[in-house]
Automatic annotation (TrEMBL):
<dbReference type="InterPro" id="IPR032033">
    <property type="entry name" value="Cytochrome_P460"/>
</dbReference>
<dbReference type="Pfam" id="PF16694">
    <property type="entry name" value="Cytochrome_P460"/>
</dbReference>
<protein>
    <recommendedName>
        <fullName>Cytochrome P460 domain-containing protein</fullName>
    </recommendedName>
</protein>
<dbReference type="InterPro" id="IPR038142">
    <property type="entry name" value="Cytochrome_P460_sp"/>
</dbReference>
<feature type="domain" description="Cytochrome P460">
    <location>
        <begin position="35"/>
        <end position="171"/>
    </location>
</feature>
Length: 181
């Protein structure tokens, strides 16, 4: 009769550990609102062809925050960046087709919408189990505007933390610097 007691004890322990770990990560993406009308009202500042993933990524910034951004400085609080993916047109061999300028050709609607948002004090509340990312937090949405339930945002933190010197962004910090030249 010992085995069932032991396994239920382990089960409760795992459940509690799971709740502790999941808590901050669930709280994170849920405080980020879906960026309504980003494709018509926000600033499209970059377009990245990812041949490896056969995707074209459209990268936007919320205009109010963008107007306050200064070259070489971290983005102001209230900054929201959106990266919206579309599939690339492929040929019969599944290789991306290029246009006259050598760019990939997006097809169909957005397939995924990634958001990073910065608000004062957010960094303190995201939880110790994710890598430091200043006051940025992350969320991934499905095209219908609901949070993607399969996303664990710990992965976002882990990869973007490599960009410490660029305010944890892959493109935005550099874009603000480049356009000031
Ligand atoms: C393996 C590394 C990696 C992971 C994991 C990752 N990103 Fe990124 N992210 C990138 C790269 C690289 C770019 C620049 C675009 C490109 O080259 O694909 C980027 C760009 C972005 C941008 C546009 C602003 C910027 O930094 O240039 C947003 C928004 C974004 N990612 C959100 C997310 C979210 C949300 C998650 C988690 C669901 C996530 N990322 C996970 C590597 C990563």
């Amino acid at each position: 009769m010992k085995a069932p007691v032991l396994s239920s004890f382990l089960g409760a322990g795992a459940l509690i550990a799971g709740l502790i770990l999941a808590g901050p990560l669930v709280a994170g993406p849920e405080r980020i609102a879906f960026p309504e009308n980003f494709e018509t009202e926000w600033v499209l500042y970059n377009q990245v062809d990812r041949a490896d993933r056969k995707r074209v990524r459209f990268i936007y910034v919320k205009p109010e925050a963008d107007a306050e951004a200064k070259p070489g400085q971290p983005a102001p609080n209230g900054t929201v960046l959106v990266m919206a993916d579309r599939n690339a047109k492929v040929d019969a061999d599944e290789n991306p087709v290029l246009d006259a300028d050598g760019r990939m050709i997006p097809e169909g609607d957005f397939t995924a919408i990634f958001v990073m948002e910065k608000q004062e004090g957010w960094g303190e509340s995201v939880g110790l189990e994710v890598a430091p990312n200043g006051d940025w937090d992350y969320a991934a949405f499905l095209p219908d505007g609901t949070l993607n339930p399969e996303t664990n945002t710990a992965g976002c933190f882990a990869c973007h933390t490599r960009r410490t010197g660029k305010d944890f962004t892959f493109t935005y910090f550099q874009n603000v610097a480049d356009r000031a030249k």
